[in-house]
Amino acid sequence: MLKVNGHVVEVDVPDGMPLLWVLRDELKLTGTRYGCGVASCGACTVHVDGVPVRSCVTLPEDVEGAEITTIEGLATREGRAVQQAWAELNVVQCGYCQSGQIMSAAGLLAANGEPDTDVIDDFMSGNVCRCATYQRIRAAVTRAAELLGDDI
Questions:
Q1: Which of 87, 86, 58, 84 is closest to 70 using CA atoms?
Q2: CA gap 25, 102 in Å, rounded
Q3: Gap between the Cα atoms of 150 and 152, Å rounded
Q4: E strands in 23-133
Q5: What pLDDT is recorded for position 127?
Q6: In this structure, are residues 83 and 45 in contact, taking their beta carbons and an 8 Å threshold?
Q7: Integer Rg of the chain from CA
Q8: Which domains does the chain have, with CATH numbers?
Q9: Which end of the chain is more exposed for a tag (fewer CB within 10 A), N or C?
Q10: What distance lies between CA 82 and its chain's CA centroid?
């Protein structure tokens, strides 16, 4: 049994099936994207107990009992601030990596509500954007931190 976006779900999947495919194929939560399959690009980022993890290398049995949050269920204060900042600053270009970027950014802000540029760059470095919108991503994380300071 897994707890995904606040709902307890039972899944019967083969041993070794990554959480990514459970989310996408079994639970039809397709906002979490497949990118590389080896935890190098960040497209598959979800939160496990509030911490960003790569679902392509996470096994369901390793997260039983934990709260798994996908982009579809991201309703935290930080998540709302990030989504607002993303829209304000028009971050998205092709959009493929954005759910992973948003999940990572929300995780960063949950851990550090006032990150400087170096912290943002370091934390977000595991998320690849093939359109290279890194400056807009950095600016949006900074803006989301401002929104949090304004008590969004």
A1: 58
A2: 22
A3: 6
A4: 45-48, 51-54, 67-69
A5: 96
A6: no
A7: 15
A8: 2-73 (3.10.20.30), 77-149 (1.10.150.120)
A9: N
A10: 11
Closest CA to 59 of 99, 8, 20: 20
Which pair of structure tokens corresponds to residue 4?
Answer: 């995904």
Mean pLDDT per 10-residue segment, the chain (152 residues): 96 95 98 96 98 98 97 97 97 95 98 97 96 97 95 64
The answer to whether the beta carbons of residues 20 and 44 sit under 8 Å apart is yes
Contacts of the segment 23-32: beta carbons below 8 A, 24+ positions apart: 23/55, 23/68, 23/70, 29/4, 29/5, 29/70, 29/72, 31/70, 31/71, 31/72, 31/99, 32/70, 32/71, 32/99, 32/100
Cα(36)–Cα(9) distance, integer angstroms: 26
